[in-house]
Amino acid sequence: MASDFLHIESIGRGPDVVLLHGWAMNSTVWRAVAEALSNDFCLHLVDLPGHGKSTSTAPLSLEHMVAELDAAFPRPVQVVGWSLGGAVASRWAMAAPDKIRSLSLIASTPCFMQREDWQPAMAPATMSQFAASLAADWQGTLKRFISLQVQGGAEARALAKTLSQELFLHGEPSLAALQEGLAILRDTDLRQQMHQLTCPVLLQFGNRDTLTPLGAGEWLAKALPQAELIVHSGAAHVPFASHLDDFIEAQRRFLLGGM
């Protein structure tokens, strides 16, 4: 099987921690987090297949991304995943439970789109609008998506500017990868499989997140036997940017416990 080229930047020294970004973004979103944790850990900032500087040799799927990550990291690691990256991390932990020492899910969810029995997620109409507008104006679509990520949060305008600047630091995203990644967000539903996660799990959510509402984090906290939920008051979808100090404090404590 052909293999992707994964762009991975490593910072710091110590136990290995893999950082996975969200849809349409790239690993540069983690730089402040990595710098803050670099005295205690070796942080591996990954551009997911089809994102940033990483290529993709196959249509994107959770299974494909997990296979590439699993091949790139042969030794046990701790994994931090934001949004889509959290779904990838969860699926990786299910596929390779002996390799994942701990899992941190940041503003992530087992099911990104609302269903009859699942409301703490994006409305189907919102998801459909993004899919329809991507082909016509992908840059405008990404700007609207960034606005949704910070909507309702503290310092929303400044955060939106930062995310917009980071968006193209590793090059322009592939339209095909954007479309395939959005399809993953639309179709993913891991609720029935989440009980397979037996490692310690840290959940960090914002109480003003409109993309992955706090209700998803509360559901995960009840569903996972070794889960701890941290709620950042005033944060939207990017608590690691809007509440960096509090985020780092919780993340460092959790990762040190998983060594």
Give a written overview of the molecule.
The protein is of the alpha/beta class and 259 residues long. Helix content is 42%, strand content 15%. It starts with 7 loop residues before the first strand and ends with a helix. The mean pLDDT is 92.
What is the element layout, followed by pairings?
Layout: E1 8-11, E2 16-20, H1 31-37, E3 42-46, H2 62-72, E4 77-82, H3 84-95, E5 100-106, H4 124-136, H5 138-150, H6 156-167, H7 175-187, E6 201-206, H8 214-223, E7 227-232, H9 239-242, H10 244-257
Parallel strand pairs: 2-3, 2-4, 4-5, 5-6, 6-7
Antiparallel strand pairs: 1-3
Main features:
7-stranded mixed beta sheet, 259 residues, single chain, alpha/beta, 7 strands, 10 helices
Can you give me a brief rundown of this structure?
Helices cover 42% and strands 15% of the residues. It is of the alpha/beta class. A seven-stranded mixed β-sheet has the order 1-3-2-4-5-6-7, with helices on both faces.
Count of helical segments?
10
Helix content class: 40-55%
Rough shape?
A: globular
Cα(first) to Cα(last) distance is 34 Å
